[in-house]
Amino acid sequence: RITCFTNVKHANWCALAFLVTVSFSLQAEPPRRSIFSKSRQYTISSTLVQPQPVPSGKTQPIPDRINLSPYKLAHFAGAMKDLVLHRLQLPPREQWIGRIHLNIIPGKLGDPVIFKRKRFIDRWQYRLDLPEVMNGPELARVIVAVQLEEYSTRNSSNAPPIPAWLTEGLAEIILKQAGPVLFVSFQYAAGGTFNAVAPNDSMQENRRIIQASKPVSFLDLSLPPAAAQTDNGRLILRAHSHLLAIKLLAKPDGAKRMKYFLRQLPKHKNNQHAFLTALNLQSMLKAEQWWM
After folding, report:
1. Residue 187 and residue 59 in contact, taking contact as beta carbons nearer than 8 Å
2. How far is 164 from 241, CA to CA, in rounded Å?
3. What would the pLDDT profile of 77-112 be if each residue is shown by its tens digit?
4. Three-class DSSP category at 46
5. DSSP letter (8 states) at residue 40
6. What's the burial of 150, exposed, middle or buried (CB within 10 Å: 0-12/13-18/19+)?
7. How far is the C-alpha of 276 from the C-alpha of 244, rounded, in Å?
């Protein structure tokens, strides 16, 4: 009996020690909560223990600094997705296949977004770790990029990167036409009024940049050179990409050709060849002549 009692007592102490260890390990883990976007394509989670305070003061229509939170990010990602799919004229049955996980992590303005993808049996899944403080337009470009890739890589085991001009150009179209409305939830969470007028000419700002800069070739839009990595270089690249995306989508069959181009990307060694196929151009020389 004494031996049995001792063994039982020892087992109880081991179990108690195990529970205490688990308790401390769970307390050390940052809290995680997940929600779904309206379409359920996006899963949004957060590992923030204590989010940064939202800065006060007058904000811009398209803010250069926003503090991410799960519910606001879910709303924003869903709205951006709807606008991308609207531009591509996708029917409801083609809304999405691959799931996208957006995870908010501690970070400061300017920290990089960590992008990961994983192939399952018949689809891709994506994960983006976003710093809790981001530039508004940059967040929009991130959502556009992953949404375009999700459409491009359906039914393909290959996942080539989306060309810079398409991500930048489509994001500019959306931001210039609907940007202030998209960011309302980030800027007016505590109440207040919102007043914005959609511009008659969405190309007005970028047209000035194009007129004041040297022409950018289609090859440089597809494969941006080192000069495009500077602040001024990115502005010029973005302005020309905006113009290219507008001209392509303005064609009578623009959305159809854009979708065909995205589906062709995994089948070619580079995006230039996919572009030639989608627009029925015989060579890069023909593409450059059309663009210029």
Report:
1. yes
2. 8
3. 999 999 999 999 998 788 899 999 999 999 999 999
4. strand
5. S
6. buried
7. 14
Determine the 3-state secondary structure of 10 from DSSP.
Answer: helix
Summarised one tens digit per residue, pLDDT across range 228-237 is: 889 999 999 9
Task: Concatenate the DSSP letters of all residues of 122-180 into one string.
Answer: S-EEEEEEEESEE-HHHHHHHHHHHHHHHHHTTT-S--PPPPHHHHHHHHHHHHHHHHH
Parallel, antiparallel or unpaired: strands 66-67 and 133-134: antiparallel
Supply the pLDDT for residue 50: 76
pLDDT digits (tens, 9 = 90+) for 206-242: 999 999 999 999 999 988 988 888 999 999 999 999 9
Q: What angle do CA 184, 185, 191 make, to 5 degrees?
A: 85
Residues composing the chain: 292
pTM equals 0.84
Both tokens assigned to 28: 């050390």
